[in-house]
């Protein structure tokens, strides 16, 4: 007797035939992209001026990109020749996420127009058409079934929705690309990243940036579910040197896209913040030491540079050249790192965290009291050391605009390019340290200090070395920070506050980006500096939204945005010592296995 089992085909949230859903999604995405050529409002008072025909502007560009991205994913899932490379993993999940990103950005824009201009009457027919087409696109995407059939078909609406968004394993490539093609793909990816970052930082504060942020929060997971980010990650691992070079070249191009210092100073501060976060990553990410007073080392470097850089308010009255001031700031932080670390690094866990927190506050209070009244007159107390002169290296004055390669670069663009070089040096130090025997010993101590000591590792000496290295890197960044802001005050170096850099934001940048990785703290620092700077209009609600975002991140991605392999295995238990690559077998391999069985 034979028992037949019937499998119920998976279906989407809306009951439509699969091909009909794909066609509806593709047609809706194309129509949504076309509506950006129409006027969405009659008034130019809304930021971005969405009153023109056949000239998308402002958030219309976001809708245009979203519509085209959804169209590409939808047509690739239809099996059109030449587009299969767009979806090396899932097909329906990225289509749904892209449609959701387009819908969210479009409807947010239209609602913002109605709120800003006091009424829906201010919408032009183009805006109404965009609302309808984006809704139809989302409806078609919601009708798509999951990419993978589950053992137990989802029953409820929410279960079917989450099943459609589930990740799919990466399929093997049918053929390998030549090296020059892979390098071109890496260069194109970093160029696209530069364009996305430049658009975001140039976007007006308020509704335009919020709309951009909403779109990016949904569009990046769409690229991830499609498998494109995994493919790019594999290429960057194959060509590490090329990828790093392309990243720094793309970053160095940013000041050449700016006419003023309005956003270049944000870029320079992001690089300073990222460099300090990378130094903290040595302490927290590699060695596993919880340091809650790390911003004090940034302050030590800043104050040391301020005292020897020729400020008229300096108690020392020295004017060192930049290279000497740079070494002075790094050396001062290194000395403080050793002096603080030597008696405290025998502590572990929470006790070490409390001691480092105390050191951070002691530094800030000491800088306040060295004012000539409650202590020696060294730092001018709460007034700090102002009027730090601009840097001048080989006759190149960083405080004046210059033409570089025929392109005008404003004042803070000069400091931005300088920080590119400093960041490149810190990245080199981090890479070499992490890949060395010392770096592997740090990781061993982080994972299990008792086992590391049993294997002959000198835990105290290596922890002190990590503390000292992290402190010196922070001092290096602090030297440039003092010249960028032209002053050094105690209030700049707190444990927590609404604006970075402070110890809480630095630690959050490392955890958000991914502890122990190279690119993780850089990405985390960029996000944590850029987003508060662009959402300044929220005022007192900034920290509330920041806390909610961190809670959600720790709930759904505790390993960080760019985690390493160990963290992925730690937070996503598999029951194995390691996890092999979960990829779909290619056709040739499947055929060979079938013939072998036969």
List keywords for this structure.
61% helix, two-stranded antiparallel sheet, mainly alpha, disordered N terminus, 22 helices, 598 residues, 2% strand, two-stranded parallel sheet
Q: How confident is the prediction overall: mean pLDDT? A: 81
The total count of strands amounts to 6
Largest sheet: 2 strands, parallel
Distance between the termini: 26 Å
Listing every helix as H and every strand as E from the N terminus to the C terminus, the arrangement reads HHHHHEHHHHHHHHEEEEHHHHHHHHEH
What amount of the residues lies in strands?
A: under 5%
Low-confidence stretches: 1-6, 574-598
Largest sheet: spatial strand order = 1-6
If helices are DSSP runs of H or I spanning 4 or more residues, what is the number of helices?
Answer: 22
Structural class: mainly alpha
Shape: globular
Radius of gyration: 27 Å
Helix content: 55-70%
Subcellular location: Cell membrane
Transmembrane segments: 21-42, 62-83, 95-115, 127-144, 180-201, 207-228, 240-257, 263-284, 289-308, 320-339, 351-370, 412-430, 464-484, 504-531
Organism: Streptomyces decoyicus
Keywords: Cell membrane, Membrane, Transmembrane, Transmembrane helix
Architecture overview:
This protein is an all-alpha fold. Helices cover 61% and strands 2% of the residues. It has 22 helices and 6 strands. A two-stranded parallel sheet has the order 1-6. It has a two-stranded antiparallel sheet with strand order 2-3. A hairpin with a 2-residue loop joins strand 2 and strand 3. Helix 14 crosses helix 15. The longest helix has 27 residues. It is globular and about 75 Å long. The N terminus and C terminus are likely disordered. It is a multi-pass membrane protein.
């Amino acid at each position: 007797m034979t028992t037949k089992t019937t499998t119920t085909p998976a279906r989407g949230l809306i009951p439509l035939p699969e091909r009909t859903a794909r066609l509806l999604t593709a047609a809706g995405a194309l129509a949504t992209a076309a509506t950006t050529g129409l006027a969405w409002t009659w008034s130019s008072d809304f930021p971005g001026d969405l009153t023109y025909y056949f000239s998308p502007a402002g958030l219309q560009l976001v809708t245009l990109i979203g519509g085209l991205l959804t169209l590409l994913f939808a047509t690739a899932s239809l099996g059109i020749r030449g587009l299969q490379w767009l979806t090396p993993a899932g097909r329906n999940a990225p289509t749904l996420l892209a449609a959701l990103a387009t819908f969210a950005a479009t409807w947010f824009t239209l609602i913002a127009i109605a709120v800003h201009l006091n009424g829906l009457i201010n919408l032009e027919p183009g805006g109404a058409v965009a609302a309808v087409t984006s809704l139809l696109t989302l409806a078609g995407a919601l009708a798509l079934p999951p990419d993978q059939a589950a053992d137990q078909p989802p029953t409820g609406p929410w279960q079917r929705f989450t099943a459609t968004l589930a990740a799919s394993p990466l399929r093997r490539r049918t053929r390998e690309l030549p090296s020059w093609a892979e390098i071109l793909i890496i260069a194109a990816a970093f160029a696209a990243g530069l364009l996305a970052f430049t658009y975001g930082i140039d976007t007006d504060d308020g509704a335009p940036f919020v709309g951009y942020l909403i779109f990016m929060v949904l569009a990046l997971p769409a690229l991830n579910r499609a498998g494109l980010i995994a493919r790019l990650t594999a290429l960057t691992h194959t060509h590490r040197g090329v990828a790093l070079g392309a990243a720094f070249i793309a970053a160095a191009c940013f000041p050449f896209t700016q006419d003023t210092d309005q956003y270049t100073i944000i870029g320079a501060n992001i690089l300073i913040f990222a460099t300090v976060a990378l130094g903290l990553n040595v302490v927290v990410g590699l060695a596993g030491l919880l340091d809650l007073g790390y911003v004090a080392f940034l302050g030590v470097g800043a104050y040391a540079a301020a005292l020897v850089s020729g400020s008229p308010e300096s108690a020392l009255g020295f004017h060192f050249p930049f290279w000497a001031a740079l070494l002075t700031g790094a050396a001062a932080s290194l000395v403080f790192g050793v002096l603080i670390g030597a008696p405290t690094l025998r502590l572990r866990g929470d006790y070490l965290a409390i001691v480092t927190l105390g050191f951070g506050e002691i530094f800030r209070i000491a800088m306040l009291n060295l004012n000539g009244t409650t202590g020696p007159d060294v730092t001018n107390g709460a007034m700090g050391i102002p009027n730090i002169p601009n840097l001048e290296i080989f006759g190149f004055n960083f405080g004046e605009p210059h033409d570089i390669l025929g392109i005008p670069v404003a004042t803070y663009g000069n400091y931005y390019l300088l920080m590119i070089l400093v960041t490149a040096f810190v990245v080199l130090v981090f890479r070499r340290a992490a890949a060395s025997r010392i770096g592997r010993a740090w990781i061993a101590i982080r994972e299990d200090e008792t086992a590391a000591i049993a294997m002959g590792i000198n835990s105290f000496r290596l922890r002190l070395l990590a503390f000292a290295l992290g402190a010196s890197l922070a001092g290096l960044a602090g030297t440039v920070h003092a010249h960028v802001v032209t002053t050094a005050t105690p209030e700049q170096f707190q444990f927590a506050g609404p604006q970075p850099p402070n110890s809480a934001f630095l630690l959050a940048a490392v955890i958000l980006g991914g502890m122990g990785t190279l690119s993780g703290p850089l990405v985390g620092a960029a996000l944590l500096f850029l987003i508060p700077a662009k959402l300044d209009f929220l005022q007192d609600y900034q920290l509330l939204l920041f806390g909610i975002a961190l809670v959600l991140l720790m709930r759904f991605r505790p390993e960080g945005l760019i985690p390493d392999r160990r963290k992925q295995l730690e937070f996503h238990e598999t029951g194995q010592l390691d996890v092999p690559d979960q990829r779909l077998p290619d056709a040739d391999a499947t055929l060979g296995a079938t013939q072998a069985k036969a």
